[in-house]
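[Solved] Which block belongs to which protein?

Original post:
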Amino acid sequence: MQRTGTPDPIVVVRAHSDDDLRAMIHVRAAADAHSPRPRLDNLRHNLAGNPGLSYLVAHAQDAPVGCGFVDVSHASVARAHVLVTPQARRQGVGTALVAGVSEHARTAGLAELEGPIRADDEGSLQYFQRRGFTKSGGEEAVVLDLAEIGDLTTEPPAGLRIVSRTEAPDTVEGMYEVAREAEPDIPGGAPVRPYEVWRAAEIERPSLEPELTFIALAGDEVVGYAILDSLRGEPWHRLTAVKRAWRGHGIATALKRAQMQAAKKKGYARLVTTNEERNRPIRSINRALGYRPEPSLSTIVMRGPLLLAEKDR
């Protein structure tokens, strides 16, 4: 394992092996019990599919006590996140991890970090505020109890077909063209990822079930899509995307209804999603479909400067 410059007794390592990744899963389960635990196959896949992504694990006395990631594939800011187990807080673990992700960002020529903090984690919010971070956005979590919905069979918008990716496996490049328009339009969104990185995350990720990804077709043109990610037996929505020229025609609602019906048919109990708080159109759609707030899964996105390099402190 590759060590960063963090002194003992806290040692931060860059995760490479399955043991490192299992240590991350252990920390996530202890530090964020409300969220689904990562899947080992997903973590392996994420590293293989995105050369700009690094995972870090912090150890104290040979036990994993913190973890984090940093993604430098975006041009303007390093996307990052750190977690510390409850019993190891206020012992320098978080600072060691922030130093680690800062060093990766600095090496990539980036000057800022941006990432989510659970909305009810007042200690972490204050920690980053003291270091010059400010709120740049927020993700409101909502859930849908599938037992409460009836038959969702409806006709798609006129002139369109709604099909699963199982039925239309050759639509991936068309989906990417939708993403190229939709991803930058999300409030707080980033420029669209390179095709290979996008495909690895949105198509080839092990927890993605093709029968739960739905595509809106106008003839042979992909005009929208919606993806569900089956995390530890509970589906979470990823992006619901529609081309700009086709928005306002009920396509996003039709895609979500298809997902809801398919998930219920497969025996899932609920669906979970998070939406940027400024993304009023999708939040309005979710409310109309019966999704209800789940504050324990909501996050605040913070953005701020890198931690100074050790030689500059």
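(Second protein starts here: sequence line, then its structure tokens.)
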Amino acid sequence: GDRDQNSYILLKKGRFSGFREVTEGVLETLALNNPKAPVAKGDVFALTAKDTVTGANMLFASFHGDTNGLATIPVVTAVTTFARQTLPSDYKLIFGLDANTYGDPDEDQQDVVAFGDFLASLPRKLNSCYGQKPSRINYTTFNARTHLQPQLNKAVAFEEINKSKKGDKNPKDFILFYEDDYSALDVLKDNTGERKYVEGMVFPTLDFPSDHGVT
């Protein structure tokens, strides 16, 4: 899509073969079951491939959620339903997403704990890199606008960055997989570009240009 935000999947050359994009199939499943889900063109990307090292058939998916995370559960449901209905049962899933979940949500925002409960309730249970009971304070975003920008109503005073909801300090980013396929042995967050995450640090910074940490 011709947008500022698009979902991507990056795969190691030579490791995978037989690519087939299945985005439209996922979106058709979404439209059938949750036609009002706030999903824009470019938010969802999905493809199948074969792992030439392990021989496994893979379904890869990437999703950029709407601001309040209201499309997250419908999209995850659509991806897993599509897989269950159209792919052989031996397909393994790796699904990276900005779920836009919240640790202290308003009524119209997706609660991160409820999202974990949803993963465990699916016909074929999903797990995440942060487990089925993700912490409300395992943040992957921490950004707040200063007063040096034109929308002063969104500015956050420095002494209020840990209190104000005008900023974004939330556990939003996940890698999902089927519980019976994989276990998470080691998980790394990074908001520095140096394979480490500094808790309590507002970003982007001059060294790290994203407002989401890398998971």
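Accepted answer:
You had them paired correctly. Confirming on the second one: The CA atoms of residues 68 and 162 lie 20 Å apart.
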